[in-house]
Predict the 3D structure of the following.
Amino acid sequence: MPCREKEVNPVPETFPNTPETARPTMIDVARRAGVGLGTVSRVVNGGHGVRDETAQRVRTAIEQLGFQRNEVARALRPGKKSSSLALVLGDLTNPFFATIAKASLEVAGQSGFAVVLGSVDEDPEGEKRAIQELVSRQVAGLMIVPDQGDHAFLVGAGVPVVFVDRPATGIEADIVMVDNEGGGKLATDHLLEQGHERIAILLAPSYYTTGRRLRGYRRAHRGAGLEVDESLVVQLPEGNAESAEKATRELMLRPDPPTAIFASTNFLTEGVLRALGELGLEPAVVGFDDFRLADMLPTPVTVVASDIAELGRSAARLLLDRASGADRRPPQRIVLPCALIQRGSGERPPSASKRKPR
Amino acid sequence: MPCREKEVNPVPETFPNTPETARPTMIDVARRAGVGLGTVSRVVNGGHGVRDETAQRVRTAIEQLGFQRNEVARALRPGKKSSSLALVLGDLTNPFFATIAKASLEVAGQSGFAVVLGSVDEDPEGEKRAIQELVSRQVAGLMIVPDQGDHAFLVGAGVPVVFVDRPATGIEADIVMVDNEGGGKLATDHLLEQGHERIAILLAPSYYTTGRRLRGYRRAHRGAGLEVDESLVVQLPEGNAESAEKATRELMLRPDPPTAIFASTNFLTEGVLRALGELGLEPAVVGFDDFRLADMLPTPVTVVASDIAELGRSAARLLLDRASGADRRPPQRIVLPCALIQRGSGERPPSASKRKPR
DNA sequence: CTGTTAGCGCCTTCAG
DNA sequence: CTGAAGGCGCTAACAG
């Protein structure tokens, strides 16, 4: 075999897309460096207790071979966990979830953890399947934005779990969420302060979060000594913008329309605004959760917002501590505060809900 | 040891968050079913060549123990790959990327593949690190939305790679992208047809994609027999909305402002609109890539759009075929078409770019 | 300090 | 049809 002079960066002759290239193992490195397997392992993991000269030889061999530790084999070793977390959520297309994903990804990455994603757009059954899939991959922990449905099957899964944004039934675990009730109250109080007395609230179906927001809504009314007109509490059949749009249209065309609307979700807010735009009506509107471009709409949208990224960060941090065994406290409950962001739509007086002046 | 009568669903007594629960292995199942290890394996994988009665016993044992195949150990078996793909992208918070992630997740999931996410908000060096992290996790394939920087280090990684949205240098691999040049031409042609002759184009720094869009812009001008005023070709220092906002302000306050603006990226479009809103000016605007709420802004935004989800789906499909060895063709290049979505902002005549009538 | 060995959980031969 | 044995890549425990 002819020998090239420079082999600093040995490029394999195989085509990259035909992955027949076997990655070098520690044994290859050991052979090349003329040392034992254990020595290589020691060098790779910190290199304590290895003579400098030997370590150097090993490092050179590693370099030359382009060796990389096989994390999979590593995760198989007795007792130890893998270095990946799982994140299970509904719809990455929803900026709310995407923000959580990004934030948790960052935190996990800083600790050398990868994040495996589970998509669950479907039934709660699909969520269970996805979670078990992930568990079978030996992830070190689970972050779950739970759908409704029982999560008791996670008990005894042998993996720490942190629920995000809403709690789950059937299992006691850490939970990181926002102060939904407080936020609901904040939004409603704000509208009440503007003099509104007929405030509609739009709710996505059976979400835990919207339920709490409704509680805040009711509490605000009680605090103001006002009775809630139950016909203004609108339970939507679906949690999307279309559903909210339709409901808003019906709501505003009633003989006794509300003078303000509290949309309990970012997508719902969108639907509400779309309907109002078409109708040419301008009741006050407050949304729950901030969203991109909220400040650029014809009437900038007032919202109750919280630090969603912090939701993801906290979840990841908590989970990492659980996984490492550093945190053995009983299940924690982290609640992030909400703040009102006034932009205009929520500051309209009751009198503005008439037909829009053209 | 006392024996309980019903042990159908044995709930471990350990606290869920202290994962000392050892998951049962195939050996446990074998013992419990009173069969050999091989038999269990056969049952778990299809169950061919096992007597019905035996298989039933095994299945019962699996049920009772809550056994789940260990995917990690499985990935370690000789020759075989893991059942996860990696997705490396910049910012999940950008709906564009989130859409890709979601779509590829769905396709991968349908084939029983998980997706490991790599976050790369940082330098190209960070991207390399992230990718190697993922490779060390033995993923069966990589989907990468590459940042600039050489990707030659992937040659010989022994893993099939599909680039998404833009190609990378240093390695020949599959690539799935949109017709950037065609889209750029489409947008520009449209503006030219409205009679615009001074069309500015805003470009994010050194992205491959925006470069191609610029080519389309130039080609459109050439086709119309017009010379491009190079002072209207604005290379932004950063690819965010703020940068575009600032540039737009400067652009429109020049003595010879453009009558139309082509924003070559969704975030840039946002910045442009924000600046125009503040200035109270209304030149024509066309954006590249559709975005949520584009139709609800004061002037609904005309965009050149493509099927982003399909981008993600195609990438995942292609990668799965490569990983399984089903696809051994030379590197493919899938290009998705763009379409113009007229909403108003792109149909303003040149004369409209005067000061906004209040 | 360094080399050797035993397994982690699974799948794939190879006997029986 | 079924049980037993070998090995994937790595680490931890144990010699030398």
Q: What stands out?
A: Chain A touches chain B through 77 residues (CB under 8 Å).
